[in-house]
């Protein structure tokens, strides 16, 4: 989803981006860290909150990312198709300290491709990189899966803020690049 406004000779873009992945991998905290620079140790922070809109500057242009959080829907192993509707970007999140959340990635990718355009710009996000002693998924494994599936890849920590902005920015920048190639 994107719109282009002619007002004031400025361009204005709005991109819908969805957060997906198993329960408790840190999706809500990645969003609150990015949008409000807040972290919740025992988070039930965004239950009921559907999305947050975050302004970003890409190549001197203001871009708005409307970032959707599942608000706990994924506890039922799936989220509704309305959640994916119009999405042009996705952060597919697992927890580097819980292998089962990495093993679920294929299932989430299937779901994403079932409900949305194949061209959704997607980044595979290995969250909780601060939990070094509890790591169950190596960086190489994450990178390897991302390469095999044609995804961007990054490891983040919502706890210590590492790479959180970079994860969102990578997706938004790529969407912007694709769109500006089509428009121009
Ligand atoms: P969601 O269900 O995927 O939205 O996950 P939450 O954001 O609710 O996080 C689940 C739990 O993991 C909470 O207790 C968070 O405090 C914790 N958590 C989230 N991100 C991180 C992180 O980067 N590092 C650590 N150590 N814990 C995190």
Mean pLDDT, as a whole number? 88
The largest sheet, given as strand count, sense and whether it forms a barrel, is: 6 strands, mixed
Sketch the topology as an H/E string, one letter per element: EHEEHEHHEHEH
| Overall 3D shape | globular
* Class derived from helix and strand content: alpha/beta
- Tell me what portion of residues adopts beta-strand conformation: 15-25%
The largest beta-sheet arranges its strands as 2-3-1-4-5-6
Helix content: 25-40%
Give the low-pLDDT segments.
5-9
What ligand molecules are bound, each kind once?
guanosine-5'-diphosphate
Distance N to C terminus: 18 Å
Number of helices: 6
Question: How many E strands?
Answer: 6
**Assembly state (oligomeric):** single chain
Instruction: Specify Rg, calculated over alpha carbons.
Output: 16 Å
Membrane topology: Lipid-anchor
Keywords: GTP-binding, Lipoprotein, Membrane, Nucleotide-binding, Prenylation
GO molecular function: GTP binding
Protein name: Ras-related protein RABA5a
């Amino acid at each position: 989803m994107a719109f282009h406004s002619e007002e004031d000779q400025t361009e204005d873009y709005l991109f819908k981006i969805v957060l997906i992945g198993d329960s408790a991998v840190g999706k809500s905290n990645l969003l609150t860290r990015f949008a409000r620079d807040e972290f919740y140790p025992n988070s039930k922070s965004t239950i009921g909150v559907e999305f947050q809109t975050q302004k970003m500057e890409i190549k001197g242009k203001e871009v708005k990312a409307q970032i959707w959080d599942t608000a706990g829907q994924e506890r039922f192993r799936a989220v509704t198709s309305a959640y994916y509707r119009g999405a042009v970007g996705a952060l597919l999140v697992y927890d580097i300290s819980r292998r089962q959340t990495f093993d679920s990635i294929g299932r989430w990718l299937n779901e994403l491709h079932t409900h949305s355009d194949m061209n959704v710009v997607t980044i595979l996000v290995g969250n909780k990189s601060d939990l070094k002693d509890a790591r169950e998924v190596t960086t190489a494994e994450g990178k390897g899966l991302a390469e095999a599936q044609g995804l961007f890849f990054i490891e983040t920590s919502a706890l210590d803020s590492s790479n959180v902005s970079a994860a969102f920015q990578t997706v938004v920048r790529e969407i912007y690049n694709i769109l500006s190639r089509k428009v121009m």
